[in-house]
Amino acid sequence: MTGNTARAEVDPEQACPIAPVVDIVFSRWTTPILWALNEYGRMRFVELARRITTITPKVLTQRLRQLERDGLVTRTYHAEVPPRVEYEISELGRSLSPLFASLSEWSVNLDKVEQARLAYDARETLPVRRSSV
Questions:
Q1: Given Cys at both, which of 29, 31, 44, 78 links 84, Cβ 3.0 to 4.6 Å?
Q2: Are 37 and 88 in contact (CB under 8 A)?
Q3: How far is the C-alpha of 48 from the C-alpha of 36, rounded, in Å?
Q4: CA distance readout (Å), 106 to 9, 31, 58
């Protein structure tokens, strides 16, 4: 064997063990749904849709089903006339509260992110100087 060691292919999930968590918790619309249910408690579909005004009913239905499947949300069907369905964050979903609290605390840095973006964009628009060699 030579001095060069071959690099083995690494599964991205092994390289970054939080990747599956990020896929579950931070997929599009999951965070606002979990946040709303955690902050405001049990809600009917319409109430949740009013809290997250930019989500379509179809997508909200899909995300709620996936969150229920993942065990992060519970769905309770009440056999009444008219039927009533309520959604609530589960204990497993509630266990994400410290993560959301940390992210909320970090959000004070969003102004710094915006400043960095503006500085970067300004740098990108500067004319390129060519040397005369």
A1: 78
A2: yes
A3: 7
A4: 34, 15, 32
Enter the pTM of the model.
Answer: 0.74
pLDDT digits (tens, 9 = 90+) for 65-113: 999 999 999 999 999 998 899 999 999 999 999 998 998 899 999 999 9
Domains located in the chain, CATH noted: 12-100 (1.10.10.10)
Contact 42, 86 (CB under 8 A): yes
